[in-house]
């Protein structure tokens, strides 16, 4: 009997698995991809995430591997609008660490395997979860094709079917969570009308370790330093998403809106994406629990989603420890329904705050056809970046409100 079976071996699922393994619980993390992903999506690790990783001893490794962004610069069409120091994020971590998601996942997976070898099972598709009241019965199937290595999981052929038992099941299988859908938990939300192009290039800018946001009437352009003297660029795309985006599409937009040349032929990652927001009606359904994108999806503009998921896991882990110990007869005190609901309420409330903040970020970066609107937007941002207001703004961008 497993204590906890986690569906999804991405950054949130492996973090929870490592926390539980460190507590001494018997864990299995089922990941249907047969190999680690190569495409980096999220890059930002906020101070609350760095504090959470201290529990696993991973924060020093993250700081050593990433780039610490201590300042952001906002540039409008008439020059510099202002700058934002991230000192307001906290005395311990007055910065956001930029580290590609694939590297963060490798650190988490290695730590999980150190704590509990063979607990991360690749090529394991969870077909069905049945809550039997005292435990869950989980049907899994071995994946026998490599099509699941892509970010968009494709239809694949399955191998042998197995049945596992676990005291609890945690769905960390993302936006399209099959586990959530099978449980009949509603997922309410919608896409936004906004689209973006994103790419990684050698850093040819003079900005060093600064993040820079260009507020342009044609749409926002953002850029962030990456390890290895690279820089990630994100640009508002005012059309339908191209079926096959090219690096030239992105670099032409960057040049037009910022005046900066970026070498298209040295692009190291490219993607086009839309944005959306969704929230599950509940995160606790008997012995099934939802975390991360399986529970709530926020726009990636602002980079809050991954940290939200990690903090879901951090809040859930001690509850699972107590509940499993109580069921195994190792503790007299279990977890009350009120405690489960408090966890659910607080985490869904945090996702709502993050959603609203992301919406404000997107609104500030949308195109405008009126020169007066652009001037007003730049004036508003200049006021928000005034030294008197900076601590509040820094607290928002570093997720200090969590």
CATH topology of the largest domain: FAD/NAD(P)-binding domain
Strand content: 25-35%
Q: Please describe the biggest sheet, giving its number of strands, its sense, and whether it closes into a barrel.
A: 8 strands, mixed
**Count of discrete structural domains:** 2
* Helix content bin: 25-40%
CATH superfamily of the largest domain: FAD/NAD(P)-binding domain
- The CATH architecture of the largest domain: 3-Layer(bba) Sandwich
Mean pLDDT over all positions: 94
Q: What is the level 1 CATH name of the largest domain? A: Alpha Beta
**Number of helical segments?**
10
Structure description:
With 402 residues, this protein is of the alpha+beta class. It folds into two domains: 2-43 and 100-186 and 281-357, FAD/NAD(P)-binding domain; 71-96 and 191-276 and 370-397, D-Amino Acid Oxidase, Chain A, domain 2. Helix content is 33%, strand content 29%. It is built from ten helices and 19 strands. A hairpin with a 6-residue loop joins strand 13 (211-214) and strand 14 (221-226).
Short overview:
The chain has 402 residues and is of the alpha+beta class.
Helix/strand layout:
Elements: E1 2-7, H1 11-23, E2 27-31, E3 44-45, H2 47-54, H3 59-65, E4 67-69, E5 71-76, E6 79-85, E7 96-98, H4 101-115, E8 120-122, E9 124-131, E10 136-143, E11 158-171, H5 178-182, E12 187-202, E13 211-214, E14 221-226, E15 230-236, H6 247-258, E16 269-280, E17 284-285, E18 288-290, E19 296-297, H7 305-327, H8 337-364, H9 371-384, H10 390-397
Parallel strand pairs: 1-2, 1-11, 2-8, 5-13, 11-18
Antiparallel strand pairs: 3-7, 4-7, 5-6, 9-10, 10-11, 12-15, 12-16, 13-14, 14-15, 16-19, 17-18
Helix pairs in contact: 1-4, 1-7, 7-8
